[in-house]
Design a protein that fits this description.
The complex is a heterodimer of chains A (320) and B (250). Chain A is mainly α and 320 residues long. Chain A contains 14 helices and no strands. Chain A has one domain: ABC transporter involved in vitamin B12 uptake, BtuC (Orthogonal Bundle), CATH 1.10.3470.10. Chain B has 250 residues and is of the alpha/beta class. Chain B has a single domain, classed as Rossmann fold. Classes of the chains: A mainly alpha (320), B alpha/beta (250).
Chain lengths: 320, 250
C-alpha cells in the first residue's frame, strides 16, 4: 500500500515533468507529441528535451537515493550520504579540471574518471580489513582533498567566464539533458543500483555488528567493494551528466526509513524509487519557478527543500 | 568437536594468545575464565576465524578451520559477540532470522528447516512471547536472550559465546546459563567466556583457566577452581565452603 503510493507519486512526478516547461503545451498536446503526433516542434520538445530530461532526473535521483540508503546501512549511521565518502567531490574535481582546460565535451568522462580514481584511493587508504569508521575517515579525507583542489583550480581560473562556467556547473542542473547523456548514465547507474541491491542482505546482517556479520559468513571485503563500486557508479554517472546535486542521498533514505523501517533490504530499492521521484519533482519546480533569464539551479533547490525538511525530521525524531 | 594446538594469535605484531592447546568435546559446556585482557575474547575470535592465527592449527569436526569456506565455517561455528548490537527498530523475529544468513539462497528465502530453527531458538530462549516486538522496546536481559536466540538459530555444532551474561541481573544470568547448558546437553559444544566464577562452577562441565595468554588449567570445575589457581590468576581467595550456587525461585 505504502509502496504503491511511493511508486504512484514518483510516476506522477515523471508525468508532471513532461507537462511543465517553457513551451506552453496542453496535456493532450504533450501526450500527442509523445506519441509522435502534432506539430513537429512540439514533438521535438517533448521527445528530445522533456522526456530525456525527466528520465535522466529519475535515473540520477534513483542512484543518489539508493547509494545513500546503502551507505547509511553500511555505516549504521543515518547521517551518511554519498557526499560523505567524497565521491561527489571527486567527480566534481574531474569535471572542473575538464572545464578548466576547455574540454567541456569531456566533462562526463572526466567526472567518471575522477570518481573511479577517488574510489580506488579511498579503498587503498582504508585497507582491506578495516571497519566502517576507517572507510568514512578515508572518504572524508579524500573528499576534502578533492574540494581543496577544485578550489585551487577555481582560484587560478583564466578568466571570469571560465570561473562562472565552473560555478554554475557545480550548482547542478538537468538543463543539458539529452538522449546521449541518458544512454551513458542509465546503464552505469543501473549497474550501480544492482550492485547495491545485491549487497542488501549482507548489509542487513551487518546490523548485528561487523564481527557477528563476519561470523555469519558475510565477507566484509566483498560488501565494501560492492558498496564502493555501486556508489561510485551511481554518483559518478549522475555528477558527470548533471553536476553536483546535493542532499538527496541523505534525506530521501531518511524519509523512506521513517515510512518503511530501516531494513537495508527494502531501503535501497525504495530509496531509489523515492530519489527518482523527488529529483524529477525538484526539476519540475526549477522549471516552473524560473522563466527566461538566469535559471534556478537544481542542486541549489534540492538543498533548499531538503535541508529544512531534514532539520524538521531530525528535531522531531530526537524529541520522541 | 573442536580442538586446537599450539595456537598463537593477536591483533598487532605481539601475540595475545601464546601457543595454547585444548580439546572441546560435543555435549560439553566449557567456561573460559581469566582476568580482563588474558586473551579470552582473542581465543574465541580466533576459534571462529574472525582473527587469523599467526601459528597453530584449529581442527573442527576433522577439518582444518582455514580450509573451510566462509559459509561452511559460519554454519559450523555460531558466535555470540560481547557487544549487544542490532537494528533498534527490527522486530525480535527479524533479528533471530539473521542467524540463518549462512543458509540464505540467492533470493533470501528462508527454508522450512530455517523457519523451524528460528521458532525453536525463540522457544528455547523464551523469546517467542514477544517475537513481534521491536528490539529496542526490550529490557537489556530480554535483548541478550534474543541475541542468544539469533546465535542458536544458526544450529551450529559449536557455539562460542563472549561474556554472554555481562551486565545482566541474577535472574537473566541464570536463565542465560540454563539455555547454554541445555544447548550443550543437546549434544553441541558450548564454549563461553565468563567472569562469574560461581556460575562457572555451577554450570560448566569443564573449565579453561587463562592467564597472560596461556591456558594454565584445564579440567573439572572443582579441580581448576582451587585456592592456588585463584590466587595466581585473579589475586582472590577461595570462599570458605567453595562457590555457592544461586537457584531460580519456583
Amino acid at each position: 500500500m505504502k509502496l504503491a503510493f511511493l511508486i504512484i507519486a514518483s510516476l506522477a512526478a515523471l508525468l508532471a515533468s513532461l507537462f511543465f516547461g517553457a513551451a506552453d503545451l496542453s496535456i493532450s498536446q504533450t501526450l500527442g507529441a509523445l506519441a509522435g503526433q502534432g506539430r513537429e516542434i512540439d514533438v521535438t520538445i517533448v521527445r528530445e528535451l522533456r522526456l530525456p530530461r525527466a528520465l535522466l532526473g529519475a535515473v540520477i535521483g534513483a542512484g543518489l537515493g539508493a547509494s545513500g540508503a546503502a551507505l547509511q546501512g553500511y555505516t549504521r549511521n543515518p547521517l551518511a550520504a554519498p557526499g560523505i565518502l567524497g565521491f561527489t567531490s571527486c567527480a566534481a574535481l574531474g569535471a572542473v579540471l575538464a572545464l578548466y582546460f576547455g574540454f567541456s565535451q569531456a566533462v562526463p568522462f572526466a567526472a567518471l574518471l575522477g570518481t573511479a580514481l577517488g574510489a580506488l584511493l579511498i579503498l587503498k587508504i582504508a585497507g582491506p580489513r578495516k571497519g566502517a569508521s576507517t572507510l568514512i575517515l578515508a572518504g572524508v579525507g579524500v573528499g576534502a582533498l578533492a574540494t581543496a583542489l577544485t578550489g585551487l583550480i577555481m582560484n587560478f581560473a583564466p578568466n571570469p567566464w571560465a570561473l562562472s562556467e565552473i560555478v554554475y556547473w557545480l550548482m547542478g542542473s538537468l538543463k543539458n539533458a539529452e538522449l546521449g547523456g541518458l544512454l551513458v548514465c542509465a546503464p552505469l547507474t543501473g549497474l550501480g543500483i544492482a550492485l547495491l541491491i545485491i549487497i542488501g542482505p549482507d548489509l542487513r546482517t551487518l546490523s548485528l555488528g561487523e564481527e557477528t556479520a563476519a561470523s555469519l559468513g558475510v565477507s566484509l571485503g566483498k560488501v565494501r567493494a560492492g558498496l564502493i563500486a555501486g556508489t561510485a557508479l551511481c554518483v559518478g554517472s549522475g555528477v558527470a551528466i548533471a553536476g553536483a546535486i546535493g542532499f538527496i542521498g541523505l534525506f530521501v533514505p531518511h524519509i523512506i526509513r521513517l515510512i518503511f523501517g530501516p531494513d537495508p533490504l527494502r531501503l535501497i530499492p525504495f530509496s531509489a524509487i523515492g530519489g527518482a521521484g523527488f529529483l524529477v519533482f525538484a526539476d519540475v519546480i526549477t522549471r516552473t519557478l524560473t522563466g527566461p533569464g538566469t535559471q534556478l539551479y537544481l542542486g541549489i533547490l534540492t538543498s533548499l527543500i531538503g535541508v529544512p525538511f531534514f532539520l524538521y525530521l531530525a528535531v522531531k525524531e530526537t524529541r520522541t | 568437536m573442536i580442538s586446537f594446538e599450539k595456537l598463537s594469535s593477536g591483533y598487532g605484531p605481539c601475540d595475545v594468545l601464546q601457543s595454547v592447546s585444548a580439546i572441546a568435546n560435543p555435549g560439553v559446556l566449557i567456561a573460559l575464565i581469566g582476568p580482563n585482557g588474558c586473551g579470552k575474547s582473542t581465543l574465541l575470535k580466533t576459534l571462529c576465524g574472525l582473527i587469523t592465527a599467526s601459528s597453530g592449527e584449529i581442527d573442527i569436526g576433522g577439518k582444518n578451520l582455514s580450509d573451510l569456506p566462509l559459509k561452511a565455517r559460519a554454519k559450523t561455528l555460531a558466535y555470540l559477540a560481547q557487544s549487544r548490537e542490532a537494528l533498534p527498530s527490527m522486530t525480535v523475529e527479524e533479528v533471530v532470522q539473521l542467524g540463518r544468513a549462512p543458509y540464505r539462497g540467492g533470493l533470501g528465502k528462508i527454508s522450512a528447516e530455517g523457519k523451524a530453527a528460528i521458532s525453536s531458538a525463540l522457544a528455547r530462549t523464551h523469546s517467542d512471547v514477544f517475537k513481534t516486538r521491536r528490539f529496542d522496546s526490550l529490557s537489556g536481559g530480554e535483548q541478550a536472550r534474543v541475541l542468544l536466540a539469533r546465535a542458536l538459530a544458526v544450529e551450529a555444532p559449536v557455539m562460542l559465546a563472549d561474556e554472554p551474561i555481562a551486565a545482566l541481573d541474577p535472574y537473566y544470568q541464570l536463565s542465560m546459563m540454563q539455555i547454554l547448558k541445555a544447548e550443550a546437553l543437546s549434544g553441541n559444544t558450548v564454549i563461553t567466556a565468563l567472569h562469574d566464577l560461581s556460575l562457572a562452577a555451577q554450570f560448566a562441565d569443564h573449565i579453561w583457566m587463562m592467564h597472560q595468554g596461556k591456558i594454565i588449567a584445564d579440567g573439572k570445575p572443582n579441580d581448576v577452581l582451587n585456592a592456588e589457581n585463584l590466587k595466581t590468576v585473579f589475586g582472590v581467595k577461595l570462599p570458605k565452603g567453595g562457590f555457592k550456587a544461586l537457584e531460580l525461585s519456583a
